[in-house]
Specification:
The chain is mainly alpha-helical. It folds into 3 domains: about 5-120, no CATH class; about 135-270, no CATH class; about 335-380, no CATH class. It has 16 helices and 6 strands. The protein has helices spanning about 5-10, 15-30, 30-45, 65-75, 95, 100-110, 135-140, 145-150, 165-180, 205-215, 225-230, 230-240, 245-335, 340-355, 360-370, 370-380, and strands at about 15, 50-55, 60-65, 100, 140-145, 200-205. It starts with a helix and ends with a helix.
């Protein structure tokens, strides 16, 4: 499922305040103010399902606040029209942006034993009446960035008063930045521009390719540019093979150009990803070589340490034995025993060891005493 399909799925799962109020008003044969009042009371009683906002820029539904829903419902419940806003507190577009998840609202109405309007049923799509200014832009061969952004927002590009609205201005700049950022990645055949980039013109077919690829809500995706708007391109096509322009050929050519742009953009992405992967492989190869070198050095160090540790016990044993022999020689001297007569002195010391409650033969002691001269000679060096 692509971006456009994802957006369509979210839109299909959403029912707006305007559609629900008008749908219930038609079924119940009651004014929209009474329907809004009923919904406001259910909201305050915390009986309504979760409120959501359908964000067409992010192409997703988000949780909406109870305060916003109360303000919008109260506006209609008090008899005001959607567009009536004396204190500039209401944006009429919010009645289409805010609403509920369709399934949740359907369950609520069934629990309340209220007939479910078509807008809450699966597969329903709102009818969008095309404004009077729609045809003038549907067949335009080129559009300025400012005109394109207004059309994305469903607004008349000639209505300059909208830009003073904070909410509209925020959406305007978000979409304008998205469109400007796409220049260079899509074939807009863009013109030069002066002080304001909003005056830069773009190829209408290029805008369609961009909108189709990104999921932007371009209102003319299902429209084919007429032969008049194609200008010299239509003349070129007709003059090559026939005396009159074939609309089917023009339409097929436009569709082929759109497909070619999509494939070119996809190819550019694949090429970029391939180059990134190649650079990553080279980096990892360099890291592997350096790691192998470091591992070899570390292995050599480990081998050297093992050798040192193997020799160390013997070294410590020899030093400890010599120290013990020197201590024995000193004690024998203090006891006036002759270490040069190891057998006799060994028997004497064996007897002393027995008095301590231990057992050590004179022969064993004699073997130690026999090594005293060599220990003295070693330490004397």
């Amino acid at each position: 499922m692509g971006i456009r399909e994802d957006r369509a799925a979210d839109a299909a799962a959403f029912v707006s305040i305007r559609n629900l109020v008008e749908g219930l008003s038609s079924i119940e044969d009651l004014p929209v103010s009474e329907i809004a009042g009923f919904l406001l009371g259910a909201l305050r009683g915390e009986k309504l399902p979760q409120f959501v906002r359908l964000d067409q820029q992010a192409l997703r539904m988000y949780q909406a606040s109870s305060d916003t829903m109360q303000k919008l419902l109260r506006h209609v419940a008090t008899g005001n029209d959607y567009d009536d806003d004396e204190w500039n507190e209401i944006d009429s577009r919010d009645f289409d942006r805010y609403g509920w998840v369709r399934v949740g609202m359907e369950d609520f109405l069934q629990r309340m034993e209220i007939d479910v309007p078509p807008c809450c049923l699966e597969g329903w799509k709102p009818e969008h009446k095309k404004p009077d200014w729609y045809p003038a832009y549907a067949n335009r061969f080129r559009l300025t960035i400012d005109e394109a952004v207004f059309l994305i927002l469903g607004a008349d590009p000639e209505d300059s008063t909208l830009i003073s609205d904070d909410s509209f201005r925020l959406d305007y700049w978000r979409w304008r930045k998205a469109l400007v950022d796409a220049i260079g990645s899509f074939n807009f055949n863009e013109s030069s521009w002066g002080a304001d980039q909003g005056e830069q013109s773009l190829l209408h077919e290029g805008i369609k390719v961009w909108a189709n690829y990104t999921g932007a809500p371009w209102p003319f995706l299902d429209e084919s540019i007429s032969n008049k708007s194609l200008g010299h391109k239509a003349i070129d096509i007709s003059s090559s093979n026939s005396s009159s322009t074939n609309p089917e050929i023009v339409q097929r050519l436009a569709a082929a150009e759109v497909k070619a742009e999509q494939l070119a953009f996809a190819l550019a992405n694949v090429t970029s990803e391939r180059n990134q992967a190649r650079n990553e492989i080279e980096r990892l190869t360099t890291c592997l070589v350096e790691t192998t070198k470091a591992a070899n050095i570390a292995q050599a160090d480990v081998t050297a340490l093992k050798t040192q540790l193997t020799d160390q016990p013997n070294l410590l044993s020899t030093q400890g034995r010599n120290s013990a022999l020197l201590i024995m020689a000193a004690l024998a001297k203090e006891a006036k025993l002759d270490v040069n007569q190891p057998s006799r002195t060994g028997e004497i010391l064996s007897s002393s060891v027995s008095e301590l409650g231990c057992s050590l033969t004179g022969r064993a002691i004699s073997a130690w005493l026999s090594d005293i001269p060599r220990a003295l000679e070693t330490r004397a060096k």
